[in-house]
Amino acid sequence: MSNFGAAFLLFYAISIYGTFFKDISWGINLYIMQYWLNPVDRWWYGGLPSVRWSFTVAICILAAFFIKKSKYKKTGLFDAPQIKWLLINAVWFAMISQWAVWPYMQSKFLQDHIKLIIFILLAYKTIDTPKKFEGVMWTMMLGAYYVSYESKRVGRNSDGRVEGTGPADAGGDGNNAAASLVSVIPVLLYFVVRSNVVKTKLWKRLFLLFLMAFILNGVILINSRGSFLGLVASCAYFGFYVFTNRKVTMKQRFQLIGVVILGLCAFLYLADDSFWERMESISEESESDTGGGGRKLFWSLSLEMVKEYPWGAGGWGFQRLSPHYVPPEYMPRNASVRAVHSLYFQCIIERGYMGTVFFAALLLSNFLFIKKTQKYLLNKGDMPSYFLGLAIESGYIAFLAAATFINRLNCEILYWQPLFIACFGNIYMLQEQKAKRAEKAAAKSGK
Fold this sequence. Notes:
- It contains 17 helices and no strands.
- By secondary structure, the chain is mainly alpha-helical.
- The protein folds into 2 domains: about 1-75; about 80-290 and about 325-445, no CATH class.
């Protein structure tokens, strides 16, 4: 067993102990970290016992919750609107199983999705304090660092890409890994800026800058055009609200400018000729992919398919139907199926018209809820928390923009972001509103 493998085993055991004897948030963070570590596919996995690591963590979280459920009563399960839409989407996904064109893949994705929904519900109930929430954000940043470390260790292949280094459900695809990384960068930027504002130990500030440089380097190494667009979109969105919000002081703006310039300098220093050559072809992203097919063609074909399957074709529906729709010259040489290469068109064919409406409602509910929370924090004058919410929202935008060119409808991070937004709104708005209502009720009853 390698030293890294032994360290993982020790970390795993300590976190399981903490889940039962400290707080369930230990298990939540362990689940998130092992997702990024993806131990089964790593070089250091040899010698470790053959265990279903994520499933074991999930069982421990569930058992610990039933043991300690009285401790987590202050969060109402349906207080955040996106939780309802998550469940509605899951129910519709389950119903599609009755007519899915690829029953095996539909069953596989449905099982994984049910486990994911259970994890989300438990996490929402238990991540109920600012300290726990910040711990989850740190876990995400450290996990993204590890994927970036693996990307640097493996290096680029003959096509100038990095493959096989992403989180557990990335399927070894570099585009999927890069999309996951860019979703973390705005939150990391927030922590870097905060460390310059709030009194922070020097080692922690340097460590945050190290993480930012390493994760940016990971994105550059992977050479994903879609993720680069997502990163630009999220940073532009973050900057727009910082510079147009009247309650943001000039000092805060200059602090952000300083960190952005520092990050931009690091980015320009790390970006090599291979990266810029690939980015120069960014206009071709919707036209082609590494497999040599036309994305726009696949997207238009998905709209043709959904006419015959208006209620949804189920998991990997496009792949199953692709031999009958995709012209032979666009089919890959080493496979008999084709992917649609877009989260949104994947949703249209797999979930159908109704499912697409439900999914759009889920996305919209997140943005409406985070905006409501941000407005509450602005009125309260809590600018640090407002910026944290803006960073989380920007990270979600980065992922959704990058996912325009990849199949990520069934990945975990897509649904973790609504979880983070729900937890953030619950901690920084809903709990305070509940407390105020309770005080008013108590005052009235006292009279």
